[in-house]
Design a protein that fits this description.
By secondary structure, the protein is of the alpha+beta class. 34% of the residues lie in helices and 19% in strands. The strands form ten sheets. Strands 12, 13, 16, 18, 19, 20, 22, 24 and 26 form a nine-stranded mixed sheet that branches. A seven-stranded mixed sheet has the order 30-36-35-34-33-31-32, with helices on both faces. A five-stranded antiparallel sheet has the order 2-3-4-6-5, covered by helices on one side. Helix 7 crosses helix 9 and helix 21 runs parallel beside helix 22. The protein starts with a helix and ends in a 5-residue tail after the last strand.
Length: 1015
Amino acid sequence: MAEAQRAFTGEGAVDAAVCAAPCAGPTLSEQDARRLLREQWAITGRLTDLGSTEDQVMLVEDDSDGRRYVLKAALAEGGAEAVHAEHLAVRHFRSRDPGLVVPEAVPTLRHHDLVDLDGLRARLLEWVAGTPLGSAAHLSPTALRGLGRLAARSVTALAGFDHPGLHRRSSWDPRHAVKTVSGLTDHFTDVENALIDRTLAPVAELVGGGSAGRLPEQAVHTDIHEHNVVGDFDADGGFAPTGIIDFGDLVWTWRACEVATPMLAAVARAPEDPLGAALPVLAGYLDRLSLSEAEADALWTLVRARAALCAALQTIAAQQDPDDEGAAEVAAEDWRALRAVVEIDPALATAVVRQACGFGTPETDLADLVARQSPSPILRDQEFRRLRPVDLSVESELFSAGNWMDAEAFPRLGSDTEVAVGRFDEIRLGEPDLTDRAPAALHLGADLFVPAGTAVHAPLDATVVRVDGHAVVLQSRIDTTTFFVRLAGVAAHVSVGHTVRRGAEVALVAPSAGPLPSHVHVQLGLSPDLPGDGRVRDRAALLTLCADPSPLIGTPVRAEPGRAVERVRERRAKYMADAQSTYYETPVQMVRGWRHWLYDSAGRRYLDLINNVAVVGHSHPALTSAAARQMALLNTNSRFLYDAMGEYAERLAATLPEELRTFFFVNSGSEAVDLAVQLARVHTGRRSVVVIEGSYHGWTSDVFALDTLPHDRPRWREELDEHVHVAETPDPYRGRHGARAEPYVESVRRACAEAEPGGGVAAFVAEPLLGSQGGIVPPPGYLAGAYAAVREAGGVCIADEIQVGMGRTGSAFWAFEGRGATPDIVVAAKATGNGHPLGVVACRPEIAAEFGRRAGFFSSTGGGPVSCRVGTAVLDVLRDERLPENARTVGTHLGAGLGALAARFPEIGAVYGEGLYRGVDIVEPGADKKPAPAAAARICERMLELGVAVQPTGVELNVLKIKPPLCFDNAAADHFLARFTRVLEERAQSRMAMTRSVHRHPTTTRVVRERNESP
């Protein structure tokens, strides 16, 4: 932003008038600077030019004690009153808020703050240590909220300070934005001038109207943004502010200008969602200070004023120095921010600000007013056809198998006797594009679904005020209320300015431009510029401006209110045990899934990298059909005879070695492992079990005793049962034996030997690929060697395939096959039912027979008819869609991409896994493989912001687990890799910023010449 151009170096001491011609800057030679420092401050040291084209700015490092200062030299034009005001304000600030460091002037040996020398005015300021917040490539909502808090602290600290030097006209004062920019039209294109005029129209109205007199005034920094806030980054990208710099634009103005500046700075970083970017800043400000109602009403206008100033003045800077590519880039960024700010309807922006400030307005009663006018039908033939509201929400039963994204597959709406009506205030599925942000999913009108070419009529007497694209906006007035009817999805017959009578034809329904069938969108509101759809986040504000259009439609069309996500969280927290935790700091409510995508309650979709459970993808129609059909026929306990069980067992047997074709069916992975251990104990007559350190196998009592993953069982070492023996993790990256298999096999032998005093080993339970640790692949030969050692000791080998089986590794259907070893018992779950509760135990027939001689087995719903039909359907899809082969090919592509990132970013210590089970080990760079769990958690939170769901696992919770549904394709892999790259780049930039000893701010061009003028 242009703020970056002004950071640190701006004199800002007296009134500013825009200088269209290049401004000659001060020229203080290094020799003169050294002499000045020596004579005036008794300082000698090293000088570093910090780069400026208006003021001359040098870093001074004192030879005697290493202290740092800033020497600033400016042309001595006009008086020094404003500079003295700045110095006194800084001292006042420091006395009121000693917790923030601000750059106080260092007095000379003669106790002066300023020194005049050959037409120059010099001063020495304290150096404010730290790194600019703007050095971070990404500012999280937490960081932006902190920026807002700093703006509030500045207002508090400067309150009560006044000085004649503050009462001047500054080009950066939003009060004077119209005057500042009005003389610069020759520097902009016609399009740019039109945009500036549109931007400043409400600013001129504010300044010229009576409301400006209700805005509190005080001394205001006016330049608090990410480049003027310094602090310390931690290793994980967190930021702790320590100081504010550059008080050069300090002026007496409206108090609310202090928060408008950082709000615009946030918009410049995320112009695709201006309100979403600005709201965290405002929230931070409101954490400490409140805004008056007049300030809340004016705030977005102040943001617009700031945006116009930044774009205009930075363009002048770029034109003054055409060779400065940085200035041109910043100017382009400022224009993007300006366009983003202007594109938001001012009425909506103000409503959102008012809601945030606690000045919420009730929903408009415009619908009642319109209803009393008995509007004419918008469609003439609707008088003879029944209107039927239809559910097109994110949870609609009309949608399945992605049909909402495909015009050919979209559900048929309406009939010869009915007009289908899309509902108002309904949260719909977002656009199907790959997006990094929340969609505008809240439907703000009603849709009448009729064929293209259907005539559309004005419901009331009106004036046409907008005709653009496929929309017409009609303005009407009832008593003292002016309101607007927006008809979209149409080809207009009328022009702007035309007056139309109620019932007059104004348009024809246009052909469909997307998945939705042709329709006319009918919207009733208090502004002509309201969008047809809004973000769910802004719902309360939107409903103060958008009215229920039911009176225009002729039937109630408002959707039933859903349960707000906050209430969903509260209800879960009220009744569910804390141990049953959720993902993420602020859990997202997921309501729909399709293939490798998840959809939340606000209509946003997320790339799902977590769900190895949904192995064939979410909501697969073959599975839903199989389950529904069987549920409609029979679902009973497993002691009845039904064919579904035998069919499923037969199909499952075909995937396994001949000796592992005897099955038990249960409901979950925990039950499957529990039963497998029972089988081993009965078969061997022993109790001891050998497990691998860092493993997780389930939650039943006997299985939980085997768990050695600290996150799930923090005190496992103290609680270790005498019959559980732990072998070393065969980890080629972190294990003490590296990639050599035999020492890890020897660890298994030792564990078996330790079991001998207790009667010997009954079983060795292990994942062939260490899924609980992020997909670590044991050294070649490890699993075969471990199985041999266990069998030599008289034990049974159990392969836990719950996470890694069912074709996930790509090389084989079962992970043990790729390890060159065959177990005695296999357990599987999760993927077996694609999320339906179905667990499988496959074993050698003699093991099952021994168990049957000593005990019976019965699981009421384990292997019930519905479960077995679902399990068979999973196998069908895996086969028919060749998903194991897809796991191999896409997994290879994904693995190559992750490997390239590991070579580029030292924060990745290792990449694990095979096929579509991958792990990324996050470490502290340069710390010899030291796990970085906090960094992994931050990465996951940032990825969620970008629409990617990924979570950490492993002993230290520092390994990102990547285990998507097996329908995951190369496009999805690239989507993930691009966002992961972005996050790693952001973090690398933050770490680089931590190492800088001098905080240089980007492009320090000044575009204003200071001179004394009366305000």
